[in-house]
Amino acid sequence: MILRRAMGMALVGTMLSLPAQAQEDTRRVASTALCGDQLLLTLLPPARIAALSAQAVDPGLSDAAARAQGLPVLPADAEGFLWAGADIVVGSDRGDSQTLSLLRRLGVTVVRMPPTNSFADAMEQLRSVSTVLGAAEVGQALASDNEQQLARLLAERPTDPPLAAYYRPDGGSSGQGTFMNEALTLGGYRNLAAEVGQSGWGRLDLETLVLHPPTALITAYFDRPGWSLRHKFSHHPLFRRLAASRPTIALPGSLVACSGWPLIKGIAFLAAARPPAGDHHD
Amino acid sequence: MTERRLSLLLLLALLALTGWALTLGTAPLTPSMMVAGLLPDLFPHDDPRLAMVMQEIRLPRVLLGLVVGAALGLAGAALQGLLRNPLAEPSIIGTSACASLGAVLAFYYGLAADFSLALPLAGISGAALGTLLLLALAGPAASTLTLILTGVALSSMAGALTSLALNLSPSPYAVTEIVMWMMGSLKDRSMDDVLLASPFVLAGCLLLLRAGRGLDALTLGEEAAASLGIALPRLRVQVIAGAALAVGAAVATAGSVGFVGLIIPHLLRPLVGHRPSAVLLPSALGGAALLTAADIAVRLIPARSELMLGVVTAIIGTPFFCTLILKARRQA
């Protein structure tokens, strides 16, 4: 509860500091991908947002979907961005390469945000990108606030963290070096995929799950519609039995779809849902 | 119909399509704004974005479509003549797959993000390496069968390595970008891409157009062609090098666009007779027209995100092809 209130206060704080920025900087910014969308919606007043990507309004992926309502959504297309009057375009480090290169040629400032894999890197990116966008103060405030929230969460972290297995519907997990591993660790869990020596976004197979029964299962995107083939893993009878016999935490995909902001919300969600540690045997 | 007459008709169609393609885009421009954007000296306009949209976004896209389409159509016609196989298409000699692989590697290592010409340059390098490998493996005296088999082997190998890159890809965004790129597109290409691809395509097309006499002789059989004074090994190297130059540069800048090289010669051959040399120039023009038409369709078909060019050429191409098959069946 305290935590939720603290997050609410932080949001109010960022909202209050917005008008001051708007007077100084009128450059308009567009985004070609989800992570940029959420950053724009968090850092900039609506008048400065020239265009967002289609994912921005998807509440299952974007934590800022509500704020995206009514703002222009454009496909990644150089002509569209130019016509929408974008002075700056924020994109992912992979994807839309041709569009972003062409925009750069046409004199538009292009910011490519690579995914960050640690909380510290995410905060550094938040600070640097917000400076480029002319929203340095809001970005600084948000980053400091996130860091303070994290410090509070870490103070409550148990000495004996529960073992958790993280799953996407296709059986994919997240080992060492991923921001999900960071979220799990900072949220007060031991990450099974990392403990069995996996790194990157590989699969955590059922046999490993049986051999190392975790205290809790953490699932994300299991509620996404239309991913039929990918859902196959999540319908495996053995997986369903293992999931039914232990706490299963459904982590909203919108909190962890991007590695930067709003990762802190994902960490807070995980910490709030954390079951007590304890060996689990089937 | 004579070759000259058909070429003239195709040229007219091409001009009309080119004009239409220039009017399409996300920016809502009136015809007078488009003219002002293309000819700012004659029709001054105070919005600097007009010239940018027309000259640096729409014009390169249309020009690249012409260059790529001509390369694919001509290479298809020449290879069908050389291999005396109606199923031959530019990808059969493995160049397309090798050019794709080169570009995919540029994506994989993130070079495409750092430097905009990295992508076409990597594609052209892939195509060049693939072709050298093909010529080295098959040898200049290779039979048609050896050439096709070597091309298929090269294609499979490049395809496998492309899949490997997808398999090991570090980020899901990279996978999406690679997959989308492989379906072919002319979206948001710049004049740099046009200037990079054109010399290779032009050189390749000149080599192919000059092979007409040899290809005509080859229809009589290899021995008869040799007795007519055609140096077959030279003809093979000329056609393969020409196709590789043209198609490699095309794939490197626009991704893999299938079907154009296969169907265009088939569509035009009944109109000009079955002499391979008569199909060459019309195929270049027809390929350019088909690709431009497909790129128009890509932008007219309403979809959540722009359709990919290779998808549309296949969708447009298949019904045409099926009609041809039915017609051939009735005649047989």
From TrEMBL, chain A:
Pfam families with a match to the protein in the record: Peripla_BP_2
Signal peptide: 1-22
Keywords, sorted A to Z: Signal
Gene3D superfamilies (alphabetical): Nitrogenase molybdenum iron protein domain
InterPro entries: ABC_Transporter_SBP, ABC_transptr_periplasmic_BD
Source organism superkingdom: Bacteria
Designated name of the protein: Iron complex transport system substrate-binding protein
Keyword Signal: yes
GO terms classed as biological process: cellular response to iron ion
TrEMBL record, chain B:
An MF annotation (GO) of this entry: transmembrane transporter activity
Keywords of this entry: Cell membrane, Membrane, Transmembrane, Transmembrane helix, Transport
Residues making up the signal peptide according to the UniProt record: none
InterPro entries (UniProt xref): ABC_BtuC-like, ABC_transptr_permease_BtuC
One annotated Gene Ontology cellular component of this protein: plasma membrane
Record GO biological process: siderophore-iron import into cell
Membrane-protein topology: Multi-pass membrane protein
Gene3D superfamilies according to UniProt: ABC transporter involved in vitamin B12 uptake, BtuC
Pfam families from the UniProt entry: FecCD
Transmembrane segments: 62-79, 91-111, 117-138, 145-165, 194-212, 239-267, 279-301, 307-326
SUPFAM superfamilies for this protein: ABC transporter involved in vitamin B12 uptake, BtuC (SSF81345)
Location relative to the cell: Cell membrane
Top-level lineage group: Bacteria
Similarity-based family: Belongs to the binding-protein-dependent transport system permease family. FecCD subfamily.
Protein name per the record: Iron complex transport system permease protein
Organism: Insolitispirillum peregrinum
